[in-house]
Amino acid sequence: MTDRPLTLMAVHAHPDDEATGTGGVLARYAAEGIRTVLVTCTDGGCGDGIDGAKPGDAQHDPAAVAALRRKELEASCEVLKISDLETLDYADSGMMGWSSNDAPGSFWQTPVEQGAARLADLMRHYRPDVVVTYDENGFYGHPDHIQAHRITMAALELTDLSPKVYWTTMPRSGMQRFGEIMRELHGDRPAPDPAETAALAEIGLPDDEITTWVDTTAYSGQKFDALAAHASQGENIFFLRMGKERFAELMGVETFLRVQDTTGTPVPETDLFAGLR
pTM to 2 decimals? Predict the structure, then answer.
């Protein structure tokens, strides 16, 4: 037997991703006494700056944005009671097709083996029982999310560890409901682009392909507050416009695809740590 606590490691691309996709499980498992480790791969420097300055604007300062987002990330971790925060501090690559994709030092330009070696060192240190990251498309095609997936899967192969491994996802039924709420809360804003709406409908997986459904309703308030801690990105965090009650309704269950398992636990399952405790 060992005194080492059960450990969850979540590997995310940017500050605020930890709250969006895994805020519920991070809060829930922390409350259950599980060690929660967050690895954030980029500095978030392509996010919104002071007064909403966008990348490319004259007043947008990536270094200042990164410094602000680090503070917001730390505040989010406090809300979610995350045990350990590790940052790789690669430069944010921006959205797919941006010129920042090609910038030297950007995460997208970093050799996978280099990022994987650094992450493998963290895995050897924390020895996670469960690892969570994105699928091969980074859930929605963001280059930094794709790169986070790549280095995570490569890092696992560099270690002697055999954790349960999960990729974040959403049920198609949930994405449909999300689209309905977007239209409902749309107000007097310009109508969503039909192509974007169609693309949204293709994100995630059919409900019957999802292996793991974790009820995090009791922690939806923490998840909402963790998102709110990223105040500089508020314009881009649609969920905050829902209010806590509607947010809990839509975001009270977090879903995953289990891609590695040694426990033999049947799916669908309702606990990332099923078979480990």
Answer: 0.91
